[in-house]
């Protein structure tokens, strides 16, 4: 990238999130262009790149990163493919926006943290987009004023209409609750030290064998509690809510009251149906922020360390689900690179 030229981005993975990010870079965000795309499904990649001037199509992520005009990488492939893609980006010392999860488990996430440390500077922003949602941003700002006093508890609700066919019981934690893990760490500025998971009898609306819903309790090193109801086959809508209970008041986000109608003796509104709709503003602002900081040669936002910490907490959560009881989180020493 030179001077005022747009940031050339290689998008790795052109599934649901990747295709949405390609659209966003191409049509919503200024100062950036899609320079290359890669997907193991060449036809899918071709279809997503169609009509984008100068965008090359690849099946190998490293080849996309090496393509002409690529200055930065957006990884939106499935979680198990992230580590290899991140290491390939590090080899070229390219800035990366990596969709969550950073990697599927704590050991591989720690390898990424160590590889970034070896570079000597931060290169990765992790796609925990809730940190860019206008309501969450306001909640964090309010908590930081101290007006409500010290936060004592967070109550989170996270509901999806239906889970995808490959969803497993542990994915309720690693794929979904991972967002609340990050939100809890970010809102409170505290590390999570232990996890307990309770699961009631599963909903008849959930696929056979899936433990859905679950109730997760996170303990923090600041003495706070954060609970999460995760229900990925609730059937009626996409809901993500958080209520902070503080010493002198409470504050809640995610009520989703956009348009409220009163007619024929009833009142009501609609409920968003998925995360691309509910968090559209957050994704747009996340991408804008990443493009702007990258063009300035800076790295901000959720770090590889945040991705690792989330993976470590989720790993403890999966053990708590499978073995029962309270499981303590084992975190490595935080490297100086992450402040
Ligand atoms: C999905 O991967 C997401 O990241 C969504 O934000 C979350 O609501 C959903 O439960 C996950 O499966």
Outline the structure in words.
- The protein has 339 residues and is of the alpha/beta class.
- The chain folds into two domains: 7-130 and 281-302, NAD(P)-binding Rossmann-like Domain (Rossmann fold), CATH 3.40.50.720; 131-278 and 310-338, 2-Layer Sandwich (Dihydrodipicolinate Reductase, domain 2), CATH 3.30.360.10.
- The protein contains ten helices and 15 strands.
- The chain has helices at 16-27, 42-49, 61-66, 82-91, 106-119, 134-145, 171-188, 275-278, 280-295, 304-323; strands spanning 7-12, 32-38, 56-58, 72-75, 96-99, 124-127, 151-159, 192-198, 214-220, 225-231, 239-246, 249-253, 261-263, 266-268, 326-328.
- It has a seven-stranded mixed β-sheet with strand order 12-11-7-10-9-8-15, with helices on one face.
- Helix 5 (106-119) runs antiparallel to helix 10 and helix 7 packs across helix 10 (304-323).
- The radius of gyration is 20 Å and the shape is globular.
- The protein starts with 6 loop residues before the first strand and ends in an 11-residue tail after the last strand.
- The model has no long low-confidence stretch (mean pLDDT 97).
- (2R,3S,4s,5R,6S)-2,3,4,5,6-pentahydroxycyclohexanone binds at residues 160, 175-176, 179, 232, 275.
